Amino acid sequence: MELTLVRTKASGIDTDVVVLLDWEDGDRGKSSPPLAAFYNSGEITGKLLEFTLLHGLEGYKSRRVLIAGAGKREKFDTAALRKVTGAAIRFLKGKGTAGVTFVLESGPSGPARVQAVAEAAILGAWEPDYLKTEKEGKAIASVAISIADPDPALDAALEKGRILGQAANLARDIAVEPPNLLTPLTLADRARRMADAHGLTFEVLDRDRMRQLGMGALLGVAQGSAEPPALIVMQYKPEIAASGDHLGLVGKGVTFDTGGISIKPAEGMEKMKYDMAGGAAVIAAMQAIALLKPPVAVTGIVPAVENMPGSQAQRPGDIVTSLSGKTIEILNTDAEGRLILADAITYAKQLGCTHLVDAATLTGAIVVALGHSSSGVFANDDQLLARWMAAAKEGGDKMWHMPLDDEYRDQLKTVYADIQNIGGRWGGACTAAMFLKEFAGDTPWIHVDIAGTAWLDDAKPFLAKGPTGVPVGSFVNLALNWCDLS
């Protein structure tokens, strides 16, 4: 999709469709006489995500004009604009549309809104059908953003939106791959190609190297599969670092999760190809970071495994020794994500990361707690938490701070090892986070449980069914704003 910025009035734009935002409240219609009849009749109400497509409208050079309902003006923000943009793109895709122009108001929020439209247009155009031999509808070839403002910051905002949208779609491309095509080594190859293309330092630790280092927690999960594991490491170093901080991004990369010996029910197990969505988000975020060049060092780590119930699979009752030296009693082999993250977090610390953020489709319990609206956030450091929540808000990712009190650690006590890998029935998302906290130690750390937000079971008006790309934007904004938030 080609993205451009134009500074032509809406009436003078020659394209297939011009998109005009319309609000429920305010003096509607008087400033645009050709539309007054539609407003006065009540045919157009301005309700959020209401679309009215008009042909040959008097006074407009474009073939069609799409009136896009934006809801109440006082509630309209960049999050709402992302939804309207994505929904408009999806609404127009099946209507023979080659070019679309979104018209925005000028003002202080101009750059943020240009970025939001650029990003959301790319996200809205994405489909999970790359393996279909016959595809429905034609892709929209070009999107322009019209805003009457000479501010050069608008051009930078357009480019940032493009980079973030393309990065999120990379995460979605990777996450939607079927598990027979995306194995741990294939995931490592995808990451390698991205890193090579964007000048990132890249390394993959294989099974032998992990065994030499002592990554018993990660290797214990991998041993039930015929597919070998991989620990993917991508590093970005700024030309001039603004501080000695080193941000570590860690993403769970279980390319398919049967549950192992503690096997999952058959219903819905096909969705476990998404159990590497956190890892996909890290790979995609590193691509955007390489392009946007924040002034902080960033290392992305993805422990990639397949969790299978093969003849060599670990069993409930096994005890493994992690890279940190802590021993872990395995009570449930389906609590595997925290095991591979434990070794990845420890390795990130060994590489010198001073601050850590991990993202994982970790627990069904977070979905019970928060549904599919927000990701759960756990933290051991208030300053890093504030940075993360600000970055997430800017990126449009909804997050909710969850408790991480010492009482949850009591549920992980065992007489046989230093820690067990599950707690009791209640507070499962919290005990999983507490398990990871054990390995983060004193290093400032954030855990983001995206089990409820990493994919959509059904399409939204503004997003296709399948992976969402959460939390790519939050990762990137955290790095970009690192010095501003110090």
Could you list some keywords that capture this structure?
six-stranded mixed β-sheet; 486 residues; Aminopeptidase; Leucine Aminopeptidase, subunit E, domain 1; alpha/beta; 20% strand; 2 domains
Tell me what you see in this structure.
Strands 7, 8, 9, 10, 11, 14, 15, 16 and 18 form a 9-stranded mixed beta sheet that branches. This protein has a 6-stranded mixed beta sheet with strand order 1-6-5-2-4-3, with helices on one face. The protein has a 3-stranded mixed beta sheet with strand order 12-13-17. The chain is elongated, with a radius of gyration of 24 Å. A hairpin with an 8-residue loop joins β3 and β4. The longest helix is centred in the middle third of the chain and has 23 residues. α5 runs parallel beside α8 and α7 runs antiparallel to α9. Helices cover 35% and strands 20% of the residues. With 486 residues, it is an alpha/beta fold. The model has no long low-confidence stretch (mean pLDDT 95). It has 2 domains: 147 residues, Leucine Aminopeptidase, subunit E, domain 1; 308 residues, 3-Layer(aba) Sandwich (Aminopeptidase).
